[in-house]
Amino acid sequence: MAATERDGSALAGLLQAALALPILVVPARAGAATVGEVGFTLLGYKEEGLMKVTEPVLWGDAVIDEKWELSASGVIDIITGASPQLVSNATGKPVQTITGASINDRRRTYNVKAGRRFGEFTFSASRAHSEEEDYLSHAFGLEARWDLNQKLTTLTAGYGKSNDRVRSSDNPALDEPRYTKEYLFGITQVLSPVAIVQSSLRYARGQGDYNDPYKLTLTFYPDAPPAFLPDTRPSSRDTWAWTTRYRRHYPSSDATLQVDYRYYHDDWGIDAHTLEGAWQFPLAEHYALRPALRYYTQSAADFYSPTIPRPTPEILSSDQRLAAFGGLSPSLRVIYRNDSGLTVEATAGYVYNARTLHFGGGGSEAFETLRAYYGLFSVSHAF
Amino acid sequence: MPLTLQRFTFRAMAAENEIQIHAEARSADAAARAAVEEVKRIEAKYSRYRHDSLLSRINARAGAGPTDIDEETQQLLAFADACYRQSGGCFDATSGVLRRVWRFNEGPAGIPTDEALAAVLPLIGWERVVLGDGTVRLPLRGMELDFGGFGKEYAVDRAALRLRDCGVESGMVNLAGDLAILAPQPGGVPWRVGIRHPRNPDAIIASLPIYSGAIATSGDYERFIEADGARHCHVLDPRTGRSARGFQSVTVHASSCVLAGSASTIAMLKGATEGRAWLESLGLPYLCVLEDGEIVNAMGEKVGAI
Amino acid sequence: MRILLLAAAALALAACVSVAPYQRGYLARPDMAFEPSAGTAEALGKTYSAKEAASGGASVGGGGCGCN
Description:
- The structure holds three protein chains of three kinds.
- By secondary structure, chain A is mostly beta strands.
- Chain A is built from one helix and 21 strands.
- By secondary structure, chain B is an alpha+beta fold.
- Chain B is 30% helix and 28% strand.
């Protein structure tokens, strides 16, 4: 038997013989499967006269040796114009007014997550840290993933814990704890070669200080001296979030439908529904367009009131985030993706939150319409 | 006019096969029909299982006179000759006679004895095949030619050529896992090729993003006999008559399916150590699963395991 | 409880499908991912949760923020 040829002449011999056949020969070209990605995202947010946030996010993830999954992200928020707010009925109707100087705050956060695959199981641990002048958060999470049924089904279970401190730029003495424990159960199911759905239920139980140190309520009465109350909320909050996400690809038009729905419930009396739909389709070679519409509606917290009733209740908040309202948010994203793994995304969005958009009517009278714009720019590179 | 992805499935060569084409519906139909016709033409001409095939007629005249063959058959036999020479004799298009003594559907009783093998081994020997001017002659009565390892692969490449001739730019021909990809999908998107897990027909060990070229896999899982903890597979060494050992499967990516198919089959026959060295010497991207289940990924950075 | 029953029913319906691994190419597309890129998810999530009472998605351990 001939010795193994090392100089490629075996290939030359076979190739020559193959080329002599009346067949199609095309270059053998394989793509780079993504084993990792790094990216940078910049968010600009403008709310009518109120606030501007510029948020650069740097993030990356990688799969190493097909066993280790690592991801990390870091954020620096620059928040300009977050201001103390007073809800007062001095003019007859309760309205929000700004009191005091605006706050320039800077939020720094980082998240790291590491996971290891063991056959059908993947276990991961994560750590998150977030720091603002008026808020500090340390969190960790544990997650287990189980691939079943030839990977058609994936079950996920998670546990998380967050130890936070609530502070205030106005009041250096404020430093109150808030603890949250989270539990997650999720299922991901492949429905067909072009459809996949994920449903997960998250329960979180939090205890500690939920008061917003920047929110105050001032109420004038026709027949009594005015009352003044800082934001006072329950010292615990149990929340449920049920999130279902569906993705369906249409090969004939090369387009993808994305639908997300979340039902949220908490023991403050808030029920919220979020429904988002998006349609991503090719625009030209390398370019795709993704128009999306998000609808949000929530009921008011039991203790929400823009005015202080008599007798003065123990807990009360005039924060309009706890009011009954709804919101519509259309957005348009342009995506450029080339063969070398570069992806550039630009998104423009509009947020319109109003009393009248509360599902079924009956939004809170005092809710002041919010109009905001945002622009999002993201560059990432897969390797 | 927007292109849409059209998918056609058809049965041929005892398997479910598919063609996928990015084209307008009408032109895709015609192209797919031409490609399927080509596959069926090759099957009818070179199948060992059809008594009226050219191959069966050549085999029926073994030990007698030469058979006239056309240019296509001469080219294929020239390719078989190159495979024999480049493989150092372990790829032999006359080894089909071993199937007379290997009965893969009979369990351990189907494994041939040394005596049974000794009776057929003398009928194997590519160097004895007489290629004349437009003729082929098998000198010994009972000798057999078969196109295993490049016949189906040739059909893949021919079907791909028919698609191209019909104006298809982006398409794929997949004959039971051996496939050719003409060009990337619109927008420069690679096709995803899942490589079957050799021990679990429903699982894949890797998903390859392939822009173009052909993929062929040779494995020990199509027909085999388990006996005393050993697997006797249908890839048979013409020198010993026994099953190839060392690999569960070998997948090769090359510029044509005949090249990928012959490379993977020869590697399988050479066994783990020599086979891998041989694949390395070819310089073609490959992915193989060793006997103990270890996956050797020599697609460089091109592979994403699922 | 009703939520759990619905989820269980969805699972029961889905359990009878079969998708051969070689057919799963489309599922690996970036636009079939549940989350957009990490940066986009993070930035948009915080933007909405600063204006709404509801928060929390399909992950745990992310920690809280002041979000005023």
